[in-house]
Structures are given as structure tokens and as C-alpha cells.
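Let's sit down with a protein and look at its sequence and fold side by side. We need material for that, and I hope you will provide a protein of your own picking. Once you have written the record down, we can walk along the chain together.

***
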Amino acid sequence: MDQFNAIVIDRDEEKNQSVAIRSLTQDDLMEGDVTVKVAYSTVNYKDGLAITGKSPVVRRWPMVPGIDMAGTVLSSQNPDFEPGQEVILNGWGVGETHMGAYSQVARVKGDWLIHKPQGLSGKQCMGIGTAGYTSMLCVLALEKAGLTPQKGPILVTGAAGGVGSVAISILSKLGYHVIASTGRNSEADYLKNLGAAELIDREDLSGPARPLNKERWAGAVDAVGSHTLANVLSMTQYGGAVAACGLAQGMDLPSSVAPFILRGVSLLGIDSVMAPKELRMQAWERLAQDLDMAKLETLTKTVAFKDAIQAASDIVGGKVRGRVIVDISDQ
């Protein structure tokens, strides 16, 4: 493909940001040993922050955003990949410091790619995306910390978002009693259909936290941070664990050491961007096994390439439920 379309973020000398669909050539792409024809991408919260400029996600300009991709190898100088093979990518600074997935063609390092998991289509992989892959990393961490369905309920914050929606689906299939925290009462049926057994209002968790509160759950998946995470920790049962993977409310943690030294609670930090390939492959194998594909279908919607910019704005504005797939071929 000599010419192709891409969404490009740029800024002027006054650091005013602009976003537009532009025509590029492969000469415009950055270094890498594998060139991929991109079929699908996603809209994650980080993509929304990059496109709207509401957080300093982008580190160099011009930049093609999009932290997830699924596509087919066009050419490769990497011994692990051959033309025609289907591949996926999550993270590694793509869409931040390296031109990303919102482009019909991408050039990346082969070390960042994995072969498409068996049993999943490229579109399904992007329905899962970084949000869903992060959810599985949280589940793996909680399991490693010793949590089982018999230990007690699991809380999921930001339940109607991408991470939360997939986490509820996975945990419920594994037999956990899932408590979903959301500020969108209109999403009650949606969350229950995914497998949530109980719903609580996010306002119950969003204010200043006491050092310790009544024990309510054995563990949690938190995508919110700040006061919400502090409250989650204060209500976690003795010996429980909380997997923290997001900062929708903020990067701060106005808590105390009380949950850790008086109840033995573990706070598990989850990084999806630089996770080693072995862990990524484990997470994707488990996703193919433990995520109900019928539920995945209900929590995803697909938008055309031209609508990705608006979808990115919507996700930052809290208007997106579940997961958004971007059909890169739909130009």
C-alpha cells in the first residue's frame, strides 16, 4: 500500500493540539522490523486522553494514536513473523511514543507482537483489547495472591467501562460473586447480564475514606484510583487483595497503611503496557478460555474509522459502555 489513511495528532508552536485524518506513505512510518496491515483497533481510555489532549499521553509529534491493533503481516525482517500471519499488539508505547494503530498500515518492532490467539478472530481480540487484556492480568494477579470464589465477593469498580465490563464477565464465569460499582443506574440490566450479582453506587466509594471500614469483599479490580481505591482498600477483608490498574478518578491514593498492616491486605499493581511476552501470552490464552464470547458480543460495538475521533471524545466524557472496536478497513 503506497498510500493509506491514518489519524494524526499534531500541535503547533504554541502547543495547540490538532487531530485529523491524513494520507500517509510508508516513508512516514517509524522504525520497526515488521510492517502490518491493520484490520481492527479499539478505543481505550488512554486513546481518548491522547486524542482529546486531556492528559499528556502523547510524547512526540506528529503521532498516530491507537494502542491496540489486530492485522496481517505485510513484510517482516523478524524471524518470528512471516507475511500473511495474523498478529495482535497491546501497549509498548504505541500511540504514545511510536506511531500506533489508527492507521491502515503500521510498522512496529516484532518483539511487541504476538500471534493471534487460537480460537479468537482479530475482531474479537480488539473487542477485548488492552482493557480486556488488563482485566485478565488483574484476575491472574488475584489468583496468584490466593483468591478463590470461596474466599468471598469480588468488587469491580468502573463496572460499565471496558476494564470493568470484561472483568465482570470473566470473574462471573469463574464462579465469583461479583459486586459492580457504577455511577450509571441505567446500566443495571447490562451489568447483571454480564454476571454482576450486586450493584453499588460509585458515590458510596468516591468520597474521603476512613483508614478502616466494614469488611465487604475479599478482593477487587479497581480501574478508578484516588478516593475510590482508598475506600476499596478500607473495606477489603483480612488477607484480601486488590488489583489496581486505572486512574479514572485520579493518580493519588489518599489512604493509610492501616489496611496493609492491620488486615494484611495486598495492593497489586497491574501494568499492561510493558508486561513481558510470556505473561501476555498467558493472559490471552486464558481470555480465549475464560471469557464468554456471547457476552463479549453484548459489550462491544463497532465504529467506522472516521468515527474513532468522536468515540475517543465520548470515552473520556463517560459516554461509552463496554468496548468500542474500530474497523480500520471501513474508510
Observations:
- The first helix runs from residue 45 to 52.
- The chain has a mean pLDDT of 95.
- The two ends are 15 Å apart (CA to CA).
- The domain at 130-269 is CATH 3.40.50.720 (Rossmann fold).
